[in-house]
Amino acid sequence: MGIRVSEENRSVCRRCRGEVVANAESFDVFEQMHYTCFHYEFEHAGDPDIECTAGGCPAAGISVASLHGRIGDIEMASAGNTIVPAILTLRRLHFDVTQDADRWVARLGRARFVADDPVTLLGLIKLAENRTPWRATDSEIDDVLAEFDL
Ligand SMILES: [Zn+2]
Ligand SMILES: [Zn+2]
């Protein structure tokens, strides 16, 4: 048994003094804290409202503000000088990156992405991250075709 700050079966967070309910099973794993409190105590760097690079950051839910916060007022264009940074970013996201003939392949667990260049690989990963399922419906396709020349 770990040292629990508790009355009967209630687990009280060492950081915020609130009752731990959702992750009560992992009370000792998270050093007798809420997962969120543990994350902000030991893992998170920088502004607590901006998602950090540790997996499971609670700030991920504030995605519009945090994405803009992380991107800033940058202006980029796809060109030769974005290829190496794209490969380095894929590696930082723990993808295994290989070249298969003239195509680029990124793997993470059983997920596999194939594209003509590393920047497009990153785009596919962002697409998979943001849409489940990623394919567009017929009505979505009609709406977009009415707006853009594809
Ligand atoms: Zn707490
Ligand atoms: Zn964080």
Automatic annotation (TrEMBL):
Organism whose genome encodes this protein: Cellulomonas xiejunii
Record protein name field: Uncharacterized protein
Taxonomic lineage: Bacteria, Bacillati, Actinomycetota, Actinomycetes, Micrococcales
Top-level taxonomic group: Bacteria
